[in-house]
Automatic annotation (TrEMBL):
This is Glycolipid transfer protein domain-containing protein. Coiled coil: none annotated. GO terms for cellular component: cytoplasm. It comes from the Eukaryota. Pfam families: GLTP. GO terms for molecular function: lipid transfer activity. Residues 24-58 form the Glycolipid transfer protein domain. InterPro entries: GLTP_sf, Glycolipid_transfer_prot_dom.
Length: 66
């Protein structure tokens, strides 16, 4: 079966938790970035949503300890 626009996001979700069940920030944010092209397919009406999500991902990336 061929993948869909959601396939990369769904595959990425497999890696966002540690074996102990803790959320891993970087893999989660990387997976969130994969949803942006999906939102873009909805057209100009979703431009602000895409921008907001992308901005939140960037801000969260800077808030991580080095």
């Amino acid at each position: 079966m061929e993948g869909t626009v959601f396939t990369p996001c769904l595959e990425g979700m497999k890696n966002v938790k540690s074996e102990e069940g803790q959320m891993l920030t970087k893999p989660f944010l990387d997976t969130c970035k994969l949803i942006l092209p999906v939102i873009e397919k909805f057209g100009a009406a979703m431009t602000l949503v895409k921008s907001d999500i992308g901005g939140n991902i960037s801000v969260r990336s800077f808030l991580q300890p080095p």
